[in-house]
Amino acid sequence: MPEVMFAGPDGRLEGRYHHSKQPNAPTALVLHPHPLHGGTMNNRVVHALYERYRAMGFSTLRFNFRGVGKSQGRYDGGIGEISDATAALDFLQAVNPQASMLWVAGYSFGAYVGMQVLMRRPEMGGFVSIAAPASHYDFGFLAPCPCSGLILHGEADELVPEPSVRKLVDKLNTQKGIKIDYRTMPGAGHVFTPEQTEKVADATQDHVMGVLNRARMSMAAD
C-alpha cells in the first residue's frame, strides 16, 4: 500500500494508492468521514472499502482531506474538500489513462463529497454512498443524477434518520435512466461495528460486481 503525495488545490495531499496489475483496470476513489469529527483515510469503513475495491482488481486511492494527517491546508466547510476530491480524481486518471471505469465511494461526509464529485465528472461509471448525511446537507444538486449507484444506510442511524435517506433515494429513482440500489442494515447506527463493516464491504462488492458483469455482457453482445 504505497504512500503517495499529490498536488491539491491548497497544498499537497496524502494518500494510499494501489495500482492494479490488470490492463485497463477500473479505478475507485474512497472518501473519508468528516475531518472535524475524527474522519481520516484510515477509518474502518474507508479502509474496508479500499481493500475490497483492490481485491476486485481496481486501481484504488484513499486520501486525507486538507488538514488531516500529512495533508496540507485546513478544513474548508466542504467546498475545498470537494476540490480535494477532484484533485484526487485527476491523480487517479493521470496514472490510469486507459481505465475502463471510474467509481467514487464515500462514507458519511465522504458520501456527500463523493456525490458532489459525480456532478463535476460526467465520466463516472458508478458510486457507493454509505451513511449519506441526507438530513444534514441538501442533496438537491443531484438533478439530474449522472449515474446509478449503491446507497447503504443503517436502520438505527442516530445522526441521520433512515427516512431522510429513503426520501433521497425515492427522488433519485424517479429520474430517467437512474436506478439506485438502496440497502438498509438492521441494527446499524452511523458508526459501524467491525462485523457490520464487513457486511458493508460485502454489499459494495455485490453491487459493483453486478455492474461490472452487466457491462461486460453488454460489450460481449455488441
UniProtKB/TrEMBL annotation:
It holds the Pfam family Hydrolase_4. One of its GO terms (molecular function) is serine-type peptidase activity. Keywords: Hydrolase. Residues 147-199 form the Peptidase S9 prolyl oligopeptidase catalytic domain. Residues 1-26 are annotated as: Disordered. It comes from the Bacteria. Gene3D superfamilies: alpha/beta hydrolase (3.40.50.1820). The keyword Ribosomal protein does not apply. GO terms for biological process: proteolysis. This is Alpha/beta hydrolase. It comes from Roseomonas indoligenes.
